[in-house]
Amino acid sequence: MRPFIEGLLRNMQGGVCVVDNEKRIIVFNKAAQWITGYCADEVLGKTCREVSRSPLCDSACSFDKIIKKGLSRCNTEAEYLSKDDRPIPVSITAFPLKSHNGEILGMVEIFRDITEVKTLQTQLVQSERLAILGQLAAGVAHEINNPINGILTYIKLLLKKLEQGNLAATASKFKEYLTVMERETKRVGRTTQNLLDFSRRDEPDIRPVQINEVIEQSLMLLGDPLSVRNVTVTKEGKAALPEVMGDFGQLQQVFVNLFMNAAQAMPKGGNLKIKTAAEGTPGRECFIKISVSDTGCGIPKENITKIFDPFFTTKGGKESTGLGLGLSIVQRIIRTHHGHISVKSTIGKETTFTIELPTV
Ligand SMILES: Nc1ncnc2c1ncn2[C@@H]1O[C@H](COP(=O)(O)OP(=O)(O)OP(=O)(O)O)[C@@H](O)[C@H]1O
Ligand SMILES: [Mg+2]
Fold first, then answer.
1. Which end of the chain has fewer CB atoms < 10 Å from its terminal CB, N or C?
2. What is the assigned CATH class of domain 204-360?
3. Rounded to the nearest whole angstrom, what is the distance from the C-alpha of residue 151 to the centroid of ligand 1?
């Protein structure tokens, strides 16, 4: 058996280090030498602590667990120091070395260099962060695009009036235009602030929120785009509903996106109906159900499963600014609120988005 076992140890990819009951190294295979940079002759007879110089030896020594506490196996990750003082992250499996009659002779440690795994893990975390950052940047662009377009239109109007001369006659128009520009600029500010707040937190700032208030404020933000498109707004439901657990700013983003989509689906005007109701027995309501319906173009069957995908848009025309991010942001926000969103649509007739949010 001896040559067989020696061959086995020599060819193993994992480092094998066997210590006796005094923690002295009695076996140190080839892979252990490659990983640590020590030759077997340099370490045989020394204690494992002297060789690995790992902080783990003080806090969570495998030897203590296996020999003193009698565990049958112990898996850990640690950092050894190589001969030239390089830190080497390793994953270790340790188990007792027993004789035929069960007497404990020492401990076997099999360890693997996981430098590459660790590097990949760090890279993954970094790229995930970058992806989120990218999504967020796109989100910011999306939310500020509309007011910026508005401001630009009014700047063009102002310039045109200036070119036409006769300042006295147009002074009152100037005031009107500047007021709109001021309001839209403030809206950009609010949006970026909202999104910045959103990006700073991992978790939304969840507190009791009156959903009707969120809807009112979202409608206020969209007042002009709705009336310009001849969209009438109908609201149904009790004024006093139980509060939901939510982040006001994020929920506002949800409704702004849904109302915007509805308005865009009704270029010739139509009705936007918002219904709110509590689900469950009075006094013990568990969900608030909100439905947002429009009498617009509807969504073709083949698109229904795609509309929540990031970057899916049918508003890709020259004039259009659709990025296809609205509904993916909506879905992400509803999910972080432990809610649900669904959609029903009849082509050429109507579309209804229904949201359920848990009550306080
Ligand atoms: N109320 C609706 N009626 C008809 N189609 C809709 C409605 N809401 C969404 N859609 C469809 O779903 C697609 C995706 O919507 P989403 O809000 O994610 O992106 P978008 O509106 O195209 O662009 P963005 O919101 O980024 O400006 C839309 O392009 C449209 O085809
Ligand atoms: Mg949209």
1. N
2. alpha beta
3. 23
